[in-house]
Amino acid sequence: MTELKNIDVELGQFRRRLWAAAAFVLCCFGLLVYRLTVLQIERHDDLASRAENNRIAVVPVVPNRGLIVDRHGVVLANNYSAYTLEITPSQTEDLEATIDALAEIVEIQPRDRRRFKRLREESKRFESIPIRTRLTDEEVARFTAQRFRFPGVDIQARLFRHYPYGELASHVLGYIGRINQREAEAMLDWPDEEQANYRGTERIGKLGIEQSYERELHGITGFEEVETSAGGRAVRLLRSHPATPGNTVHLAIDIKLQALIERLFGNRRGALVAIDPRNGEVLAFVSKPTFDPNLFVDGIDTESWKALNESPDKPLLNRALRGTYPPGSTYKPFMALAALHTGKRAASTVIMDNGVFVFGGNRFRSPAGEKGGPMNMRRAIVESSNVYFYSLANEMGVDLIHQEMSELGFGRLTGIDLHGEVTGILPSTEWKRKAYRRPEQKKWYAGETISLGIGQGYNTFTMLQVASALSTVVSDGQRFQPRLVRQIENVVTRERRPPEREPQTPLAFQPGHTGLIREAMYGVTQEGTSTRVFAGAGYTSGGKTGTAQAVGLRQNERYVASKVEEYRRDHSLYEAFAPVENPRVALAIIVENAGFGAAAAAPIARRVLDYLILGLYPSEEDIVAVQQGRAPAPIGQQRPVADVPLPPRRNAFDAPEDPVPTATPAPVASPASVSGGASAPPLAPSAPSQPESPQPTAPAPSGVLGVAPAASREQP
Predict the structure, then answer these.
(1) φ, ψ for residue 537 (rounded to 5)?
(2) N or C: which end of the chain has fewer CB within 10 A?
(3) Could you give the residue ranges of the DSSP H alpha helices within 610-646?
(4) Three-state DSSP class for 661?
């Protein structure tokens, strides 16, 4: 049967289907065009950046750390390049087996394994961790020949920090170390710009100048853009921006003087700080014993850390910055100045010293052998009269003493450019209320004031505070923040600038009052307790000996040094300035448990002043005698500083280096230009060396106890 079709109807249906298909196709094309428009126009930059990031890796270029040099350009901290053997744990199936196999090719000691284990715990699995540092060329060659056996193991060339003088001035320089977890978390709070600058950085300053001037020494991180393959391996370098090395930090200290002082201490413990009162530059900053900062660069091993941390001498304690001690009789000139400034006692007032001061039924004695008799202020300082200052402390009272001494910087931070400074204790009634818990301990008793006058009792200060206070007194009240850094040199422009410091308001001392104190301290060296030490000196100097108790004594208990263990014996102190007419140096020194101030501390101070004022270096015979406490005045033939070579250096591989030749240094800014003050003559020349090319809270020292003693044992 023939089916009849309606051509018009079917044609209409075909046309409708055709239009529907065309509309669908056009809609799809429209969506495609829209999507292409979004991708190619609206999101072009974002997608292009993503594509580029997938193809290009930005690798940070860590800058060379800046140098640390002394005032004459001698390099104290530099950098060296060395090969390291590193393992990426994520690319190694059996770490222990791999390390054992590597040990057959290169030497891997147990301490290397322990350090690797510690670093692995602190790092991520995909990070490369060193198992050996400072590979020799022979070890590099042996490993390279068998590289195919060790997937995930490779050799890298890295820069390391090096301190060529080892233990010398270690408390000044500090050290750098690997960034730990706590420090990494703290960095998250830094501004974004600073965080970006530390990408790729593995080590930062931990102590000393390395820590305090971290930003200056670090430099500016550069970058490299490299094209990578699908597997993430670099194919070619596309673009780079070099890193800017860290700035060079010029210290005010003279490393030759620093080495001399540390030699003079010998095996004894103590601290010395010398300051230029004209501008606040720290000329010497010594803490003994010291430590080798090179031990910390790669991560200190357990044995070395235990030896340093558990030593009874506490070599990790910066005694100049954090060691607090009773100042003993070195406190008396400051007490005298406070009496003059407050009008509590005139210089001509005479106090009879009969060897005992009685107060409230307690007898405060003078040391055996003291001359005694009538004492005015000058004679009391020269003869170191205890009774005079016992009575003065009683007249002034603890709060007035606190007020006056606080102005001189006692009991507060000096503002030196090192982290970790402590305030010490300058007692007051308010301090005691806050320091103790029991009600009967919070009360201040009048008898506790008496010993404050001779620098005992609750008084405990750092040698930095004593030196800074003396600097203020001998400069008639002019105050400067102590600065170890003299200049900061930009390695690109070679411009030098002084470090920032807060301006200090001068103290309103009458020149007649400070002049009397200086003259009395001059008398100490001419007719007082340090006469023998400064006999024949080619300059005028003022000083004051001090002998401070390390532990307290019971009433009527006698002190016999030979019957007391070493760590409980008296401390030897001395403070000095020179020349008297125009002081250029003010210093404070303590030799722990060494007895009378003129026997141990003063002789070292004499050699320091000879070096700075006259440019004279002691004989080897004299150095040995001072170490043993047997040479008040210099013995043997003193030498010009220029004729004495620099201390021996050692390279990064612990091999001795040839001595650096001495030469006249390039001109540097005068003290006036650094401090912004008036022009002043420089210190005596000290044979500077030719500059080299740029390339946790510690405990108080044993025996330093804040106790209230019965009397000072200062000797005439």
Answers:
(1) -65, 140
(2) N
(3) 620-627
(4) coil
Q: How many CB atoms lie within 10 A of CB 95?
A: 16
Structural domain spans, the chain: 58-251, 255-675
- Runs of H (alpha helix) within 443-594: 447-450, 463-474, 511-527
User: What average pLDDT is seen over the chain?
Assistant: 86
In this structure, are strands 68-69 and 248-251 parallel, antiparallel, or unpaired?
Answer: parallel
In tens, the pLDDT along 450-462 reads: 999 999 999 999 9
Of 685, 672, 588, nearest to 257 by C-alpha is 685
Measure the CA–CA gap between 84 and 106, rounded to whole angstroms: 11
348 is annotated as an active-site residue:
no
Q: What 8-state DSSP symbol labels residue 236?
A: E
Among 85, 92, 91, which Cα is nearest to 115's?
A: 85
Sign of CA dihedral 503, 505, 511, 512: negative
Residue with the bigger pLDDT between 237 and 649: it is: 649
In the numeric block, which tokens belong to residue 175?
């050290």
Whether the bond between 645 and the residue before it is cis, its omega within 30 degrees of 0, is no
Cα–Cα distance for residue pair 131/33, rounded to 1 Å: 57
pLDDT tens-digit map of 174-229: 999 988 888 888 999 999 899 999 998 889 999 999 999 999 999 999 988 888 77
SS3 112: helix
> CATH number for the 255-675 domain, one of 3.40.190.10, 3.90.105.10, 3.60.130.10, 3.40.710.10?
3.40.710.10
DSSP state of 520: H
CA distance 652 to 451: 51
**CA atoms lying within 13 Å on the CB side of residue 176:** 24
**Structure confidence at residue 3 (pLDDT):** 67
Alpha-carbon gap, residue 474 to 275, rounded angstroms: 11
Please, is 681 exposed, middle or buried when counting C-beta atoms within 10 Å of its C-beta (0-12, 13-18, 19+)?
Answer: exposed
Phi and psi at residue 138, in whole multiples of 5°? -65, -45
- State which H helix or E strand residue 44 sits in: helix 44-55
Region of 149 on the Ramachandran plot (φ > 0 left; ψ -120 to 50 alpha; else beta): alpha
H or E element, residue 664 = none
Q: Write phi, then psi, for 383 (nearest 5 degrees).
A: -85, -5
Taking domain 58-251, whether its CATH number is 2.40.160.20 is answered by no
Give the span between the Cα atoms of 618 and 640, in whole angstroms.
9
Among 329, 384, 530, 572, the active-site one is 329
